[in-house]
Structures are given as C-alpha cells and as structure tokens.
Design brief:
The protein contains six helices and no strands.
Length: 101
C-alpha cells in the first residue's frame, strides 16, 4: 500500500505539472497562435485561387490544428480537479464541438 501512495503522489505531481503548463505559462500564447493560424487558413482557403492551389497545405494544417486541440482538450480534462464538471461546462463543450472533425 505504501508504494501505491508514492505512485499516486507522482501522478498528482505530474497532473499538477501539466495543469500549470497549460494554465500558467507561455503555452497559452501557443494556443492563441494556433487559433490565429487556423482562422487565417480558413479565410485563405475560402479564396478560390488559394484554395485550389494550396489544397494539400490547407488539409495538412487542418489535421495538425485538429490534432493539437484534441490533445489540448484531452490533457485539460485529464488534469482538471473535477473532470466531469470541466467537460460539461459550456465553454468547454463549445471547444469540444469546434474541435470535432
């Protein structure tokens, strides 16, 4: 039982570390940057000439952004102190629906 407690403390420490990385660090700026890049790609893709010429690049960017936000939401849910409450909060439901491919 003593080893389980030590493992639990390590997991809690790692969860706290991940939470801090996503909430109290420059990672927030990375998230905003990815949102801006995604928005720029959607706008650029809507221009017929750009959409036709750069279709592959836009598809790759869309998959990369979707993967990034899926990982971010998953990490945030797993590190939340109350995962169910976090998952079902309105802003997070909006994020989750927006991330769905």
């Amino acid at each position: 039982a003593k080893k389980e407690g030590a493992a639990d403390q390590k997991n809690i420490g790692f969860r706290e570390f991940l939470r801090a990385v996503f909430e109290d660090s420059p990672v927030q700026y990375l998230v905003v940057g990815v949102i801006l890049i995604s928005t720029g790609c959607v706008i650029a893709e809507s221009v017929p000439e750009l959409g036709r010429v750069h279709i592959v690049q836009f598809q790759v960017a869309e998959k990369a952004v979707t993967s990034f936000f899926t990982a971010e939401i998953t990490i945030r849910i797993l590190t939340a102190s109350k995962p169910c409450a976090y998952f079902f909060s309105l802003p997070n439901l909006v994020d989750i629906v927006a991330t769905l491919p």
